[in-house]
Write a structure and sequence with these properties.
The protein is of the alpha/beta class. The chain has helices at residues 5-15, 27-40, 54-67, 83-92, 106-122, 140-147, 151-161, 185-194, 209-218, 227-241, 246-249, 271-292; strands at residues 19-22, 44-49, 73-80, 96-99, 126-131, 165-168, 199-201, 222-225. The structure holds zinc ion.
Length: 299
């Protein structure tokens, strides 16, 4: 069932777990996210970056929402960068939008986020914003320290904007880390104590299970994921292309799929099964994190 992200994360906060928010970009990834959630009886946040097709992902989410009605799902615009993009997402049926103005000066961040909160709240859509800045892993050593969220500023930011959840920069990074991730748990704990709304961690991939477990325990309610899901998907795809596909072959018969020659013990490699192999890896990695975040059996 499609629900507001605020509602979903308020429960996560009360019960001390985090919801996984995988980036999705096509049929396979949206389906894999729903399947992972259904199999683990977990809530899920379908994260969609504008570049990956707001209307497409909205349609796909509605389709799988009907197919898996038992899954609590929120549909969130990831890193929305303009007012127009937020409105397009709301019109398309998103139940949450992120207004990322984290590279702007504080006052401009507040002003632009407030504008979106006003429009979104008018139609029951929740808003995520970011203060401080979670940068890119390839320049981690250069940008990490300067981007950290200031707790005093965060308290004011939440009060001034009336957002529903806040993405904080506590030492994580997007993509693969240059060097070792260093997470500021004390800073996170202070913000958790002083801020009432749910907190979001971007850059979950590569951060390490122990760091993520502790971040959730300290007070994170949503963890954004992409790179690790992608890498595991690529691993499964490589294995399939390399001829190691026992997990695929088990479920295949001569009647499966439009493509491929069946030769008794094996099949010709085909795109249909290749996509399925990639999606299976993505789903396995996602399920690992759902369990780690404590969201299994919270549907
Ligand atoms: Zn992000």
């Amino acid at each position: 069932m499609l629900i507001s992200m605020r509602q979903m994360l308020d429960r996560a906060k009360a019960e001390k777990y985090a919801v996984a928010a995988p980036n999705t970009f096509n049929v396979e990834t949206v389906e894999a996210a729903f399947q992972a959630a259904s199999e683990l009886r977990a809530p899920i946040i379908i994260d969609c970056a504008g570049v990956h097709g707001i209307e497409l992902i909205a349609e796909l989410t509605r389709f799988y929402d009907r197919r898996y009605p038992e899954v609590p799902v929120a549909l969130n615009l990831d890193h929305g960068s303009t007012y127009e993009e937020a409105i397009l997402a709301i019109k398309a049926g998103f139940t949450s939008v992120m207004a990322d103005r984290s590279t702007l000066p504080y006052e401009e961040n507040v002003a632009q986020v407030k504008e979106i909160v006003q429009a979104a709240h008018a139609v029951g859509v929740s808003v995520e914003a970011e203060l401080g800045h979670v940068g890119m892993g390839f320049e981690y050593n250069k940008t990490r320290d300067g981007g950290l969220t200031d707790p005093d500023e965060a308290v004011h930011f939440v009060r001034e904007t009336n957002i529903d959840c806040l993405a904080v920069a506590v030492g994580t990074s997007h993509g693969s880390y240059q060097g070792e991730p260093r997470i500021e748990f004390d800073r996170l704990a202070v913000m958790r104590r002083r801020i009432d709304i749910p907190l979001v961690l971007h850059g979950g991939s590569g951060t390490g299970d122990e760091n993520l477990r502790r971040a959730v325990e300290t007070g994170i309610q949503k963890v954004n994921l992409f790179t690790d899901l992608s890498s595991k998907g690529i691993g499964f795809l490589r294995a399939y292309l390399g001829g190691e596909r026992p997990e695929m072959d088990k479920t295949l018969t001569e009647d499966d799929g439009p493509a491929g020659e069946f030769d008794g013990d094996n099949r010709t490699i085909n795109l249909c099964d290749a996509f399925a192999a990639g999606a299976k890896g993505y789903k396995e990695a996602l399920k690992h994190y759902m369990v780690l975040f404590g969201s299994a059996n919270k549907a």
